[in-house]
Amino acid sequence: MTTTAIPELFAVDGELVSEALRAAEKQLDGADGEVALDFSSVRRIGPSGLKALEAFAAKADEKAVKVVLCGVNVSVYKVLKLAKVTQRFSFVA
Amino acid sequence: MTEVANLSEERIAYLEGMVHQAKTAAAVFTQYTQEDVDRIVKPMVLAGLEQAQHLARLAIEETKIGVLEDKAIKNMVATEFVYNYVKDKRTVGVIREYPERNLVEVAEPIGVIFSLTPITNPTSTVLFKCIMAIKTRNAVIFSPHPSAGRCCFEAMKIMYETAVKHGAPEGVFTCLEGHNLQDNAYLMRHKDVGLIDATGGPGAVKAAYSSGKPALGVGPGNTPVYLEKTADLNMAVVDIITSKTFDNGTICASEQTVVIDDEIYDRVLKKFEDLGAHICNEKEVELAGRTVIDPETGYMQPQAVGQKATRIARFAGIPVKPKTKLLIAPIQGVGREYPLSVEKLFPVLAVYRAKSVDEALKVCVDVNHAGGLGHTAVVFSKNDEVIRKFSEVINAGRIIVNSPGSIGALGGVYNDMVPTFSFGCGTGGGNSTTDNVNVYHYLNIKRVARRTQAHMWFRVPNQIYFNMNAVENLRSFASRSTVIITNPALEQIGHVDIVRRCIPPETQVRVTVIPDAEPDAKIVGQGVEALNFYKADQIIALGGGSVIDAAKIMKLKYESPEADLEELAAPFLDLRKRVVQYPTEKVNRARLIAISTTSGTGSEVTPFAVMTDKARGLKVTLADYSLTPDVAIVDPQFVLSMPKGLTVDTGIDCLTHALEAGVSVFASPYTDSNAVQAVRLVFKYLPIAYENPRDEEARTMMHNAACIAAIAFSNASVGVNHALAHAFGARFGVAHGRANALMLPHVIAYNATVPTKFMPSPNQRGYVAHKKYAMMADLLGLGGNTVEDKVKKLVTAVEQLLDQLGVPRSIADLGIAKDEFEQAIPDLAKTAFDDPSWRSNPRMPLLSELAELLRQAYQGRSPAKVAQTKAVEEMVRV
What we know:
The complex is a heterodimer.
Chain A: E1 3-5, H1 15-30, E2 34-38, H2 47-62, E3 66-70, H3 74-82, E4 90-92
Parallel strand pairs in A: 1-2, 2-3, 3-4
Chain B: H1 2-5, H2 9-29, H3 34-50, H4 52-63, H5 68-86, E1 94-98, E2 103-109, E3 112-117, H6 122-135, E4 139-144, H7 149-165, E5 173-175, H8 181-188, E6 195-198, H9 202-210, E7 215-217, E8 223-227, H10 233-245, E9 255-261, H11 262-274, E10 277-279, H12 282-292, H13 309-316, E11 326-330, E12 348-354, H14 357-369, E13 374-380, H15 384-393, E14 396-401, H16 405-410, E15 443-449, E16 463-466, E17 481-486, H17 488-492, H18 495-502, E18 508-513, H19 521-533, E19 538-543, H20 545-559, H21 565-568, E20 591-596, E21 608-613, E22 618-623, E23 631-634, H22 644-663, H23 669-691, H24 696-716, H25 720-732, H26 736-751, H27 769-779, H28 787-804, H29 818-834, H30 847-859, H31 863-868, H32 870-873
Parallel strand pairs in B: 3-4, 3-6, 4-5, 6-7, 8-9, 8-13, 9-12, 10-11, 11-12, 13-14, 16-23, 17-18, 17-19, 19-20, 20-23
Antiparallel strand pairs in B: 1-2, 2-15, 21-22
Helix pairs in contact in B: 3-5, 3-6, 3-7, 4-5, 4-7, 5-6, 6-7, 12-13, 19-20, 22-23, 22-24, 22-26, 23-24, 25-26, 25-29, 26-28, 26-30, 27-28, 29-30
């Protein structure tokens, strides 16, 4: 399993987020059933980051790849919970 | 749901998209700090202020309701005044702290709020709600009144763009466009909508409350005004005109019917007229009623809402001056036959001439009940009693005193109420709150309650004299008239004479002899009669528990004749929160000196008194620190002649007090020191006092032990042992101390095991009873390496002490038949469970456990057997 580090998702332009998720998308084809996104540097997540993450999860679904989110802090985890998207991911510390 | 079924797929997708956007924004918003939201709110407020007139113009153009200048003012109130209220309020994280209560309140946003806004105050309500939502980190989907959609959308857009520019999450506000009731119904029931804030007409509010979602609503108004004769009339008339004409009367808190005292009626109407009101004659009242009130429904005509007085007059065919501000319609009553007595959101005001305060208040109540329950009411008066009575009889969330109703109710201008554009009308108006809806209604408030330790106390008599000849101290108590309460035996053996000799010679001394049994109302009554007859200022109780208890109750009734003993004996769980309070008013005062003649009950220092209620066939316990004697004398000369049986019974009672107080959930370091010392003294001196009753040292120490143990249990209470002994002793006529002895080893073993149910107690950190028993075993030098060992050794030591004192070791030994006892067990367990004694026990007893303890007490067990029981096997290990 390869891991892609996700930068701060709160940025309004979302460029960094998109870039990181694009990099991760490339790994979806070669992934051995799982791809990991490293959230350990993500302090907050914004609406665009959330949207990008949901889109990434949808693509992963299509390719039958499981998305593992690593190092999600509890505030971000609560956002994912309230947005009702946690079931789309696995979480590891 | 029928409306929802008619929605097209496209429309549902539109609505779902809106909710998804709001849900995402609300989720993201949870990460914001107080500083983040405050940074966003301020520019929103400034943007609203800047656009106040623009938005007012849009509202007037679209709705054709109200007054441009007033709508601009409303927009400014909705921003500036609301900001002034919320700016320093904490709405994120910890919002309030109550250190003295160990309580902290923490804010949790609601999430998505579905908000209806009205036609009457369209843009101001949107501005207000946007500021509240950002301040509380919520997302809002607006549903404006269909006739005010464009101006509301513009207001929302200004707020949204400013908010997002300053960091609010995208999608935090959205506004339905081209919507209808089906959309509203769909969103009101949507699973992701957390709250409906329905500022609208009765239909919208009802739909919100019927949706099954938490909802804030407003109610219809019909504001009664009482203009009482002491009022400042100039101020009152100007205030009423200001309020009723503000935005052409569209604020639902505005005045509807003014009830005027007869004495000032003509003057008040003249003032109205002088300031630009038109006073309608009888014919004009009828014309106005026919024009502005729908004869079918009895409610106002919607076309009249927010129109000028001159326009309404023209429609009604009433000739008025061109600058007429207000139409005043005298009415003679309230109800359908007086059409203008209902809510009128336009500048038509009903007035009523009242012949008295009583009539005026009744008419105000009628107006209040004619569609305005829970909303707003106004009173003008300088008479506080009139204002008090008005606020008592009128059901309104806002009772405005000596100021305008509409602007007053908005809050923050004429008074210190919370600024709002949404008036909660309580249950009278079909709402859940009477508050001016504000930021706190947009929050879930979480209470973080840290463990508090109940305040504890340690209360004992003011003075305790002990050791041989302590009775001599009576000489130091001046008294004019002293009554000695005692029993016949003590008088016979000369104890009373000893006491008499120690009382100063100038004191008049009388003796009242009562039977040696728990007192009843008759005995207490006789004693009180004697105290009254001799005008006693001092009572000396010389005797065992029953005599001292009798004297305590006599003192209570002598000092407070109104005290209802039956009521004072009412059960309670916590002394500090008890329902019944003991009297503090006293018609007489007497010092109570208790001299104990047994070494067991410790009644000379306790706040308890037991009496027999013969009428109900019950023993009742009175408990209050006011019952505690003022002075206790613990003089062993009075116990040297105690017979062996009484020595044992009272001595074991004393040991039980100490052991139970020691493990009580109310135990404290103060009571522990007394409890363990009493245990030590009993183990050392009770066998000696039993074997050699004239041993002065043993008698002295046992007498002290009883008093010390009583000090402990007066403050820590007792436990299950006493509950069982009370039930068993009463049913089978067994002396209290002996009944205690039969239960004691079993109760120690029981309390030292892991409880089936723990006793709730904020005072204790964890379960400690077994450790405290072990500590007592250590102090007794019983040995043992583990807590389990030490508890076993304590049980064994108690058993050995009982053997040494020749106490029957089982209920069977008393000659009680097994069948008879088995049959009694269910009742005994129930009675014990009703006994308040166990409320401080470290284990909360189940009825089945009480029954089992009774069975064990019937069989009795040797220490060896005790060690093998399952209960002890389960004993907690350290």
